[in-house]
């Protein structure tokens, strides 16, 4: 009887202590879990940084091009009336200008003119024209003028403002009136808005209080 035995040549051998120690210091082939985690975090941060940069450029670009956030030329009172044919702009009804994201109206409709000068506060009394930011101070919805009352009404939550943007106390949740843009009028009666300069609206006023224009009808549009 033979005392020889045959074993497979590829039979696994036990690892010695020296071999195990060497494997611990050997670079892992492929990508490790730690490297994968670091790569994922780095890629996420790079994507976030790209979005922030793009958003910043998107905000600054219109300013550089004379769009919203910078100075916007509106034109004369006549051009504003002509651009809103069919609406009583000459009677003080708010005219909407999309490029400026603003409602523009005569402060005193009895004076059919824009008065030359500058108004950094946005009050508009000296220029006889006021420009209101289209954003409702409550949650940012866009109020719309009501042809029956000449008031501005926010359909989202019911806040109401007179035609000059003063908030009506008790009508809707907005805590202040509509915000105002700085404005200037040149010697030719051309109105320019600085949409980068916004003054916060005034405190709400009760119906019948001085400084709040009464509605032209008992019921509104919403």
Features of this protein?
single chain, 222 residues, alpha+beta, Rieske Iron-sulfur Protein, 2 domains, three-stranded antiparallel sheet, 3 helices, 10 strands, 19% strand
What does this 3D model show about the protein?
With 222 residues, this protein is α+β, with helices and mostly antiparallel strands. The protein folds into two domains: 24-64; 71-199, Rieske Iron-sulfur Protein. The protein has helices spanning 17-25, 33-64, 77-83; strands at residues 71-75, 95-97, 102-106, 117-119, 129-133, 144-145, 152-153, 160-161, 180-185, 191-199. The radius of gyration is 34 Å and the shape is elongated. Mean pLDDT is 86; it is low at 59-65.
Give me the secondary-structure topology.
Blueprint: H1 17-25, H2 33-64, E1 71-75, H3 77-83, E2 95-97, E3 102-106, E4 117-119, E5 129-133, E6 144-145, E7 152-153, E8 160-161, E9 180-185, E10 191-199
Antiparallel strand pairs: 1-10, 2-3, 3-5, 4-9, 6-7, 7-8, 9-10
**CATH architecture identity of the largest domain:** 3-layer Sandwich
Q: Which regions have little confidence, pLDDT < 50, spanning 5+ residues? A: 59-65
What form results from the Cα inertia axes?
Answer: elongated
* CATH homologous superfamily placement of the largest domain: Rieske [2Fe-2S] iron-sulphur domain
Helical run tally: 3
Overall pLDDT score? 86
Look at the structure and give the CATH class of the largest domain: Mainly Beta
Oligomeric state as shown: single chain
Q: What is CATH's topology name of the largest domain?
A: Rieske Iron-sulfur Protein
Give the number of DSSP strands.
10
Structural class of the helices, strands and pairings?
alpha+beta
Kindly estimate the percentage of residues that lie in beta strands according to DSSP. Answer: 15-25%
Largest sheet: 4 strands, antiparallel
- State the share of residues found in helices, binned by percent: 10-25%
Instruction: Encode the helix/strand succession as letters.
Output: HHEHEEEEEEEEE
The termini sit apart by 109 Å
- Please give the domain count: 2
Strand order, biggest sheet?
1-10-9-4
Rg over CA atoms: 34 Å
